[in-house]
Amino acid sequence: MLWILKYFFEIVRTGIFLLVTGCRGPSGFGSASTAEEVTEGIDASGLTVIVTGGASGLGLETARVLALRGAHVIIAARNLRAAEDAKNSILEQCRTANVDVLKLDLCSIQSVRSFVESFKALDLPLNILINNAGVMFCPFQLSEDGIEAQFATNHIGHFLLTELLLDKMKYTARVTGIEGRIVNLSSLAHAHTYKNGIEFDKINDQRSYEDKKAYGQSKLANILHANELSRRLKEEGANITVNSVHPGLIMTDLMRHSVTLMSKLN
Ligand SMILES: NC(=O)c1ccc[n+]([C@@H]2O[C@H](COP(=O)([O-])OP(=O)(O)OC[C@H]3O[C@@H](n4cnc5c(N)ncnc54)[C@H](OP(=O)(O)O)[C@@H]3O)[C@@H](O)[C@H]2O)c1
């Protein structure tokens, strides 16, 4: 009997209950709320936002709704054709939307650096950075920099991107007086990682690689990154918040390496 109560408490504590039932939480919104509902009445004009992986899935919906609310949205994507299609689909729905597309492959350190150079050349402010792009459960693969692909894409690429854009975000927050926001898309999967959490000595070790735990490891890194950066920015007095979120369970192309999850899509 006690274990049932413990199990129930765990489901409520971790938010799974609210996630599955769609019940509204203290914010007044729940997992069934749409991005349009959550942002209703918000005027985002004057804000510049970068959304990584903004050409599809959750990133595209985020880009679409932020553009709808008036923000200048930069879709950062590795597939420029898909990003242009995404931009056009947003413009079809909202002719006044301000959307630009820039090339970013998070799996390449060189590409992250080039993206930041191109963005800085536009001489725009930067209010919001949404570290959304991700891959899940891929077979073992090393990036061009020799880093396991899930860790490289989900964490290292976003970590470097954030570091390189931080001065711009601090400057924007200082001169405008508007709080900057950094959001890392993480996952409940962060709890299902290797025994030691992040296996720093084995990140690129093919023999001990397990696709699901490697995903969990990269998502744990997203959370630790957000927590530590948030602490440092607070200590420094920078007017920028950093949060990580689990977005819920949404059937997107993210599931492409999971036979079980893909079968739910078809
Ligand atoms: N969907 C869910 O249920 C769920 C649950 C928990 C967490 N999340 C998190 O939410 C985020 C978005 O997921 P999603 O469901 O929207 O997935 P998705 O539909 O597969 O979208 C992911 C996006 O990331 C891009 N991307 C992948 N590798 C990249 C790279 N190396 N450089 C630049 N962009 C890259 C993809 O571009 P390509 O099309 O070129 O691959 C795609 O546009 C991820 O971080 C994921 O871990 C999702």
UniProtKB/TrEMBL annotation:
Coiled-coil region(s): none
InterPro entries in the record: NAD(P)-bd_dom_sf, SDR_fam, TIC32
Source species, domain of life: Eukaryota
Similarity section: Belongs to the short-chain dehydrogenases/reductases (SDR) family.
Protein name, entry field: Short-chain dehydrogenase TIC 32, chloroplastic
Organism: Trapa incisa
Phylogenetic classification of the source organism: Eukaryota, Viridiplantae, Streptophyta, Embryophyta, Tracheophyta
